[in-house]
Amino acid sequence: MNTSENLSVSFHKTTSEIVSQTIQNLVQGLTGIASSERKDVILSIGHVLQRLRAGHFLSAFLKEWEEFKEKGKIKDDYQYTEQHYNCFQELLDFLDKDLPDEVRFSVLKKIFLVAASEEDTNRDSCLPVQYMQICRNLKSGEVIILKTVFNIANDNDSWAERHWSADDWLEKIAQDSGLKFKELVASYEDELIQKNLISLREHVDDSGVSIRPYFRLTSLGYELCKYIELYDEKTI
């Protein structure tokens, strides 16, 4: 797909032009695959699906980028800042090198547009690209869990009035997130701990959890989720 190459040689172009050119290249690539020999098509089927999804995601992003600009939420010169280049690179690399999915792409897009609005962080801040790098390394299930914990933490403080075992916490997240199985939530738990997004279990037998102040979210995890949620305020 060469989205990264498109960005590196096109700094003088606008964001919209780069995205439009990338989508055009995707279509041309798919046309080439369709006209190739059957053995080539078989070998390329995974790339076909990735290209189709990348084109869909980029088209959706381009529409929102243009809407933000038309509403005056993004300054004209922002797209030539270092922060923009770095965040844009993360977005394109995700589509080019990772296996893109709706859950993770939505999060990356939201961080990108919140940063571009320059209302909550300025163009000199390193946080947006750090947030995007963290989210690129998350699995979709981990994103779902983080969002669920964030919503519970902000809903009310009734949960703070009782003792929570690790098993209780897993069951609550499983039910509220739609993941259903606490074993499925547990399969993501260690990775989220290692990424410093939720806190460690407590007690010698790991039977308890510290739920204050953000229902196990660390400060980093909470601020990351809060930054992503700012997107909803900007689309009203």
How would you briefly describe this protein structure?
The chain is mainly α and 236 residues long. The chain has helices spanning 3-8, 15-34, 38-70, 82-97, 102-117, 127-136, 140-155, 166-177, 182-194, 219-234, and strands at residues 201-202, 208-209. α5 runs antiparallel to α6 and α5 (102-117) crosses α10 (219-234).
Task: Walk me through what this model shows.
This protein is an all-alpha fold and 236 residues long. It has two domains: 134 residues, no CATH class; 86 residues, Orthogonal Bundle (Arc Repressor Mutant, subunit A), CATH 1.10.10. The protein contains ten helices and two strands, in the order αααααααααββα. It has a two-stranded antiparallel sheet. Helix 2 runs antiparallel to helix 3 and helix 7 packs across helix 8. The radius of gyration is 20 Å and the shape is globular.
How are the SSEs ordered, and which strands pair?
Layout lengths: L2 H6 L6 H20 L3 H33 L11 H16 L4 H16 L9 H10 L3 H16 L10 H12 L4 H13 L6 E2 L5 E2 L9 H16 L2
Antiparallel strand pairs: 1-2
What are the defining features of this structure?
mainly alpha; Arc Repressor Mutant, subunit A; two-stranded antiparallel ribbon; 2 strands; globular
